[in-house]
Amino acid sequence: MGGGWAGDGRGAHWLTIREAGRALGPELRAVIAIVDSARVSRNRTEYDAQPVSQAQLEALQQATSAVLVAVREFIEGKCP
Fold first, then answer.
1. Secondary structure tally for the chain: helices H, strands E
2. What is the pLDDT of residues 1-59, one digit of tens each?
């Protein structure tokens, strides 16, 4: 996990989410935190059999929608 590049090893998802948050800017800090929290919840659900609530799923859906809009705007701004 060095150099700011995500690989396919341990911590790759965390690093990818962190770097996406940096690239998209601080105004998305809250939604990036929700996406990262969902990553942790997914791990718990998959490996520890802990349930995920409907509210958690709805928050993730809203957060990912906001991230997708920001990514689209970021790309359009960089690659007109």
1. 3, 0
2. 344 555 566 777 777 777 888 888 888 888 888 888 888 887 777 777 777 788 988 98
> If we measure between CA atoms, which residue out of 6, 9, 10, 4 comes closest to residue 22?
4
CA end-to-end span of the chain, whole Å? 32
SS percent in the chain: helix, strand, coil, step 5: 75, 0, 25
pTM passes above 0.85: no
Cβ–Cβ under 8 Å, residues 61 and 31: no
> In this structure, are residues 39 and 17 in contact, taking their beta carbons and an 8 Å threshold?
yes
List b or e across 66-76, with b for residues whose CB sees 16 or more CB atoms inside 10 angstroms. Answer: bbeebeeeeee
